[in-house]
Specification:
heterodimer, A: alpha/beta, Rossmann fold, 2 domains, 6-stranded mixed beta sheet, 4-stranded antiparallel beta sheet, 10 strands, globular, B: mainly alpha, ABC transporter involved in vitamin B12 uptake, BtuC, 14 helices, branched-chain amino acid transmembrane transporter activity (chain B), cell membrane (chain B), LivM-like (chain B)
């Protein structure tokens, strides 16, 4: 079943067509990747898929639901979570609170219950804390639950961002350059983490990444963007040998660079 | 002792009241000191209300005295003109006093909603501009309205507030703020404060959460206004000027923005301090100002920033990082640069 579907979406900023006719159909438990040179429009595609920009043409479906005119928080409620290229944690809060904050919109007590601590307040708070701890334990962050988020090492901040995204119980996760600024060891950790999220938790994943080795290792299907156009798509082997892709990355004529 | 520790959140504040009450009964505290304690209570309620917006949600309301004015005038009119409460039996007076207080709160909350609804949908500092204007507009409207005494001020408000009632409302406010912060609603607001874009993608309806916090804050400010009116028995529009709003901001930031304990402490200490320093005559304001500079230099997050009294049993918290927190610390410069490099 399709969890995330983009149907020929385009976006225009004044005279500039940043992304043209982009389509995507992500099924359950699949791992797709979007690659492309700098300025190709990858992050713009992400911003459209998460509701930050509205596409000027085309439509987006999450879990079969049409998302036209919806705000980002409605995208999250429909089953989509994302991480950011430059980490955006709630840096003034502890690690545990960061994960608990992602549960906010699924809490089953009202404003009056909250002010007076009646109704389901106590049971819901307990449930949220337990669930958050479960997630932190799953990714070995339980010992650092009382650290402030901005005191974590860089790699663990990335990890926490993924954990926080998982806390919204999404069907599909969008990762924006999860390996940016990492050394080879840390990249291996990220690869394992992503594969665990996909295999163990059964989430569909869409990754933007510059690190080719990593993309070729994890992605099942790759879409290549250049100047807003989809220039190539397919399995990693197919994309790797596509002359158009090589031209986009290395420049010059495809034939010259092939030889 | 064990029982006390378990129930510390419901015991401590009434205990403080009993102590003050006994001191008052035995003539150790005179009326002047009691009056200052009552005003400090009003300021504590105001600072806690401001903390919901500035500390917890990370929005900037800099005209909060405007909401206090609305609450004060609405409740004073309620008890003075409509009910003429001064000639009633005491039990009935108390009931009408509580009704008047709630009416004041609701009046302020309505204005909070009208202001918050359009401005809080935007990201950025628009709320600061609009609340600043609102405070001045309310003051000007009161100045030209004859029914509320215009520029002469509103006199003859019955003295209904007592140390007891102020203590009751301070206690309720502290618990409400504690419960707010320690819930999904409060965590949503904290998320907005720390990173609004990320909060949005974590499923938090940011404008709704911001308006909720702002309206709650305005309601509490209205209640503080009612307490103020029924304590001093005289209201003048110029009391609720921009200077008054600034006072509350000073209490909040010196006490520790984002911290409930900090708000309580800041409001209490900085209300009492000018009175304690009264023997120094004109030098007291110099000392007062100097103390604020010292606090901001050596503890930019405020006296209690990032800390809470244990008896409140707060589980959620954190520090609001205000812009100039790194300004005076030379050692943190390097890490700030490193952080910037990473984020690029």
């Amino acid at each position: 079943m399709s969890v995330l579907k983009a149907d020929h979406i385009s976006i225009q900023f004044g005279g500039l067509r940043a992304v043209n006719d982009f389509s995507l159909d992500l099924q359950e438990k699949e791992l797709y990747s979007i690659i492309g040179p700098n300025g190709a429009g990858k992050t713009t595609v992400f911003n459209m898929l998460t509701g930050i920009y509205q596409p000027t043409e085309g439509s987006i479906y999450i879990d079969g639901k049409l998302m036209a005119g919806c705000k980002p928080y409605q995208f999250t409620a429909a089953g989509l979570a994302r991480t950011f290229q430059n980490i955006r944690l709630f840096h003034g809060a502890t690690v545990l609170d960061n994960v608990k904050m992602a549960h906010s919109f699924k809490t089953d007590y009202n404003f009056f219950n909250m002010l007076t601590r009646t109704g389901k307040y106590h049971s819901e708070e307990r449930r949220i804390t337990e669930k958050s701890m479960e997630l932190l334990e799953m990714f070995d962050l339980q010992d650092k639950k009382d650290f402030f988020a901005n005191n974590l090492p860089y790699g663990e901040q990335r990890k926490l961002e993924i954990v926080r995204a998982l806390a919204t119980e999404p069907k599909v996760i969008l990762l924006d350059e999860p390996a940016a600024g990492m050394n080879p060891n840390e990249i291996d950790d990220v690869v394992n983490l992503i594969l665990r999220v996909q295999k163990e938790l059964g989430k569909a994943i869409l990754v933007i990444e510059h690190h080719m080795k990593m993309v070729m290792k994890i992605a099942e299907y790759i879409k290549v963007l250049d100047f807003g156009e989809t220039i190539s798509e397919g399995t990693p082997e197919k994309v790797q040998n596509d002359p158009k892709v090589i031209e986009a990355y290395l420049g010059g004529h495809a034939n010259a660079s092939r030889s | 002792m064990n029982w006390l520790r378990k129930n510390s959140e419901v015991i401590i504040l009434p205990l403080i009241y009993v102590v003050i009450f006994l001191l008052q009964k035995n003539k150790i505290l005179n009326n002047y000191i009691i009056q200052i304690i009552m005003l400090a209570g009003v300021n504590i309620i105001m600072t806690l209300s401001l903390n919901l917006v500035n500390g917890m949600t990370g929005q900037n309301s800099i005209g909060h005295a405007g909401f206090m004015a609305v609450g004060a005038y609405v409740s004073a009119l309620f008890s003075k003109i409509i009910f003429s409460a001064a000639t009633m039996p005491p039990a009935l007076q108390t009931v009408f006093f509580l009704l008047a207080t709630i009416a004041g709160g609701i009046g302020a909350a309505i204005f909070g909603f009208l202001i918050g609804m359009p401005t809080l949908r935007l990201k950025g500092d628009y709320l600061a501009i609009v609340t600043l204007g609102f405070g001045e507009v309310i003051r000007s409207i009161i100045r030209i309205t004859p029914t509320v005494g215009a520029a002469r001020g509103l006199t003859g408000i019955p003295k209904l507030a007592s140390l007891f009632w102020i203590f009751v409302f301070v206690t309720i406010t502290i618990y409400v703020c504690r419960n707010y912060m320690d819930s999904a609603y409060g965590r949503g607001c904290l998320a907005i404060r720390d990173n609004e874009v990320a909060a949005d993608t974590m499923g938090i309806n940011t404008s709704k959460y911001k308006v909720q916090a702002f309206v709650t804050s305005a309601f509490i400010a209205g209640i503080a206004g009612s307490m103020y009116a029924h304590t001093l028995r005289y209201l003048h529009p110029d009391v609720f000027s921009y200077t008054k709003s600034t006072d509350f901001l000073v209490y909040l930031y010196a006490g520790g923005v984002g911290s409930i304990s900090g708000s309580i402490l800041g409001a209490f200490v900085l209300t009492a301090l000018p009175e304690i320093l009264r023997f120094m005559n004109e030098w007291r304001l110099v000392i007062y100002g100097g103390l604020l500079v010292v606090i901001i230099l050596f503890r930019p997050v405020g006296m209690f920033g990032g800390k809470e009294f244990a008896f409140l049993k707060l589980k959620t918290g954190g520090i609001r990082h205000i812009g100039f927190s790194n300004l005076f610390q030379r050692k943190s410069k390097k890490t700030a640069v490193a952080n910037e490099e990473i984020s690029q």
